Amino acid sequence: MFRSRPATSPASRENQHHTSEETFVNTSVQPTAAPATERQWMDRAIDLATTSVAGGGGPFGALVLRGGELVGTGNNQVTTLLDPTAHAEVTAMRHACRELDTFSLDGCVLVTSCEPCPMCLSSALWARMDRILFSASRDDAAYGGFDDRKFYDLFETKPRAVWPMQVEQVDVPHRTRPFEAWLAKDDRIDY
């Protein structure tokens, strides 16, 4: 099984340290200093992820922006739709494509509450996204019960510097809030 709850806290994992604000930081990724508007969009994606948990979805939220305008939103609906591809990023891209009446999201930015899994990264590449911004890291997601590291290992043969789009982390202190809500939810459906 690829997704499993880790036996240890993220503080004990390699390349991480525990901060005084009870959040976990993956020190192997260097977050960018995002402009205020990018942080505001990230806050919105994180809020969407947290709301998703309350509504029965998974702890992930995503937005698609074009020219600084919101053109698509999505939350994780894997268990609610019984669709393993209904990740927040994919649902946001589907929404944006319908809204813009196109299959190409060239010129768009994907803002997502968590580092996209390999499927979502591939979808963003196929959609021709210009840029991806994320907050919670893959290690934060693993701590929340969403461990995609085996999938990443399959795909990580080229450094991000040679990818055809920018992928950057936006570090905000509340980036793990959706995972905290998820772990506190008694009736969650782990997948």
From TrEMBL:
Gene3D superfamilies: Cytidine Deaminase, domain 2
Matches recorded under InterPro entries: CMP_dCMP_dom, Cytidine_deaminase-like
Designated name of the protein: Nucleoside deaminase
CDD domains the UniProt entry points to: nucleoside_deaminase (cd01285)
Record-annotated CMP/dCMP-type deaminase domain positions: 36-146
UniProt source species: Allosaccharopolyspora coralli
Family of this protein: Belongs to the cytidine and deoxycytidylate deaminase family.
Stretches the record annotates as Disordered: 1-33
Keywords from the UniProt entry: Hydrolase, Metal-binding, Zinc
Domain of life: Bacteria
Molecular-function annotations in GO: guanosine deaminase activity; metal ion binding
